[in-house]
Design a protein that fits this description.
Chain lengths: 320, 356
């Protein structure tokens, strides 16, 4: 079992804070989006996308990264894949992709200069705001769609947004890997609200039937969905028992604890003959006090005051 | 040219053979089905390539999205089930997972339409073409017979995006020949004629050919077109048919309110407006019965097409009579006008046209 030192955990923690700031800025700027479920998933996505770059042992090639990917070569055949089945958390995915270097900001600016002077000027003006492209989430003519689009944004492995389908898409990619005798893994993040979908259970059955040990599902168990607490809307528990009964290896972790996240992912990759579900217990809206555990911030952007307050909390933490 | 209709063949068997041939030629061909491998005939592929054939049980939604994942990882995926389960039941999965990202998935369905027979309305889908036609990025193909099925399957495999291929359950008369070219988006002329054009798709193409024979005996020279691709529709052949024959009848084993006939009527309305009549299943659900009985009850016989041909020919005649009369009138008016013009000044002429 790999060891994760404090330095790595600290650098991941700092990275996650940056991603959280992006998420809040993006959604505030767009005027709509899903802050709650985006913030609950930040730490897991940060661990997946940045372990390769922040773990010194990976840099020295002494250790295999949790997720092997190359932002400069998104189409690399042997890459590990990540699918965000809960597509409404797109801001988090865009945040990590941008921070990892999947987007070429300058290319976009050059592209705009020829095509859209007005937009070009506006992006220039707002440059101080962070990564330029991220500030154009959900805007006409820009690649960052409200939900991930694999043909518009580099690094997106599946177009998701209609709940319940991403796990099956991951199942297909895992089957293709087996057919091609490739060793890559497919990580799929699913939401707990999404678990209401019958299709999730169809895939739970088929992934186990086809013995897809290269498929690792991570449940962002933030316990809230649009209309309220999951257990009130449609009871899901006991989740681990159910998935074990379907033939999955199940690991339960604190989805905001990097050591637990990394260890679980590492363990999952070693499991043979069956897929793994990591039940990551998370807090919806994690990192912004008034969004934490608040149903109201499932699909609502913060107003100006809330935005300022949220940034104060996130930046304050980052500086500490 | 059409070959004589001496034999009937199964489109499903042709599909099975084409799949096996493709499987031998290409390693990227993967086949999925949902507990209907023996009915859709993908079983033949699974016998030869068990590692590339996956049965999902009765879980079509899962099968469709999984197909998308396989395609995203570089596979050419054939997904098969009955038409009713391969479209309506999984519309959202097709829309979101396959059509929107334009993934390389071929949805080849069997048992389409009313000729499913005994199973009744629950299994007789008559709106599948409509559902697939409205999806951006989707190609919709309805082969006329076994020979064309084989070519359509190969063309679908060569095209790098989503394709819907609709096949029937019953054996159908062979009307196309091995030599005929098949290209997605191109209709074929099976019989030339100048009085009226009969356009069929799927099993209705052979019924159109029979109808043309009946019309011939009555001295009517009917053109017959096999519209094997419904989306994108071959606008050129339609415009030419409208221009040269001046009357169009369409025939399909599908809800007549929204299918091939509808797609054709849009082209006819915008490109070359001529009298047209759509033959198809009325806007109702089907019922149990034999194929032949159902074809008769729901208006899909040779007689229905012949009747529709007479209807459009009547309107065409009326239209050309009207056109002749109005041409004469225009000529007459012009003559009168010319005489008056010589007497009138230009300003007076402007006034009179204003009054009108």
């Amino acid at each position: 079992m790999a060891v994760y030192d404090e330095e790595l955990i600290e650098s991941l923690t700092q990275k996650a804070k940056i991603i959280r700031q992006y998420v809040v800025k993006m959604i505030y700027n767009a005027g709509s989006g899903h802050p709650g479920g985006s913030l609950s998933s930040v730490d897991i996505l940060t661990a997946l996308y940045f372990h390769k770059f922040l773990d010194k042992e990976c840099k020295k090639d002494n250790k295999e990264p949790i997720m092997n990917h190359d932002p400069k070569n998104p189409g690399w055949e042997d890459r590990d894949r990540f699918i965000l089945s809960k597509g409404h958390s797109a801001p988090t995915l865009y945040g990590v992709l941008a921070e990892a270097g999947y987007f070429e900001k300058k290319v976009l600016l050059a592209f705009l200069k020829d095509k859209n002077d007005e937009m070009y000027e506006r992006i220039k003006e707002e440059k101080a705001f962070g990564i330029d492209l991220l500030m154009y989430l959900r805007r006409l003519g820009f690649p960052l769609q409200g939900h991930p689009d694999m043909n518009k944004t580099p690094g997106i492995e599946a177009s998701t947004g209609s709940e319940g389908q991403g796990l099956a898409i991951g199942c297909g990619q895992a089957m293709a890997a087996k057919l091609d005798r490739k060793l890559y893994h497919i990580f799929v993040m699913i939401g707990d609200g999404e678990m209401d979908c019958g299709q999730i259970w169809e895939t739970a059955m088929s992934a186990s039937h086809f013995k897809l040990d290269n498929l690792i599902a991570i449940l962002d168990r933030n316990k809230l969905q649009l209309d309220g607490p999951t257990e009130q809307i449609m009871s899901l528990e006991p989740i681990p028992d159910k998935w074990q009964a379907f033939g999955w290896h199940v690991i339960e972790i604190d989805g905001h604890n990097f050591k637990e996240i990394l260890t679980a992912l590492d363990t999952a990759k070693e499991v043979k003959g069956k897929p793994t579900l990591i039940v990551a217990h998370t807090v919806k809206g994690k990192g912004v006090s008034f969004m934490e555990g608040a149903v109201g911030f499932h699909g609502k952007a913060p107003d100006e005051e809330q935005f300022k307050q949220a940034m104060k909390e996130l930046e304050g933490d980052a500086g500490a | 040219m059409p070959v004589p209709k001496e034999k009937v063949e199964s489109q499903r068997k042709a599909y099975a053979l084409a799949l096996v041939e493709l499987g031998r030629e290409r390693n990227d061909i993967v086949v999925l089905n949902a507990d209907l491998a023996s009915s859709t005939k993908t079983l033949e592929f699974s016998n030869e390539f068990p590692e590339r054939h996956f049965n999902f049980g009765i879980a079509e939604q899962n099968m469709m999205s999984t197909a998308a994942g396989l395609a995203a990882a570089g596979k050419t995926v054939f997904v098969s089930t009955f038409a009713v389960f391969g479209t309506g039941r999984v519309y959202d999965q097709i829309r979101q997972s396959i059509a929107y990202p334009k993934l390389n998935v071929k949805i080849v369905v069997t048992h389409a339409g009313i000729t499913v027979g005994g199973d009744g309305a629950t299994h007789q889908i008559t709106e599948d073409i409509a559902l697939m036609m409205v999806l951006p990025n989707m190609k919709v193909i309805v082969p006329a017979d076994a020979v064309e099925t084989s070519k359509a399957i190969k063309a679908a495999a060569d095209y790098g995006g989503p394709v819907y291929v609709r096949l029937g359950r019953a054996e159908v008369p062979s009307i196309t020949s091995e030599k005929d070219q098949f290209e997605i988006g191109k209709a074929t002329l099976l019989r030339n004629g100048k009085d009226v054009t009969l356009i069929g798709t799927g099993i209705m193409v052979s019924v159109c050919l029979d109808a043309a024979e009946v019309l011939k005996k009555k001295g009517i020279d009917a053109r017959v077109i096999n519209m094997s691709t419904i989306k994108p529709i071959d606008e050129d052949i339609l415009e030419k048919a409208a221009r040269e024959t001046g009357a169009i009848v369409t025939a399909e084993e599908h809800n007549v309110e929204m299918g091939m006939g509808t797609a054709i009527s849009m082209v006819i309305a915008e490109k070359k407006h001529v009298p047209m009549k759509r033959v198809g299943i009325p806007d109702v659900f089907g019922e149990s019965g034999s194929s032949d009985e159902l074809m008769k009850k729901y208006g899909l016989t040779v007689e229905d097409i012949v009747k529709a041909a007479h209807n459009v020919l009547k309107r065409k005649d009326k239209l050309s009579r009207l056109q002749r009369v109005s041409k004469k009138l225009i000529k007459h008016e012009r003559k009168k006008g010319n005489k008056k013009d010589t007497k009138r000044s230009k300003s007076q002429k402007r006034k009179s046209s204003k009054k009108r």
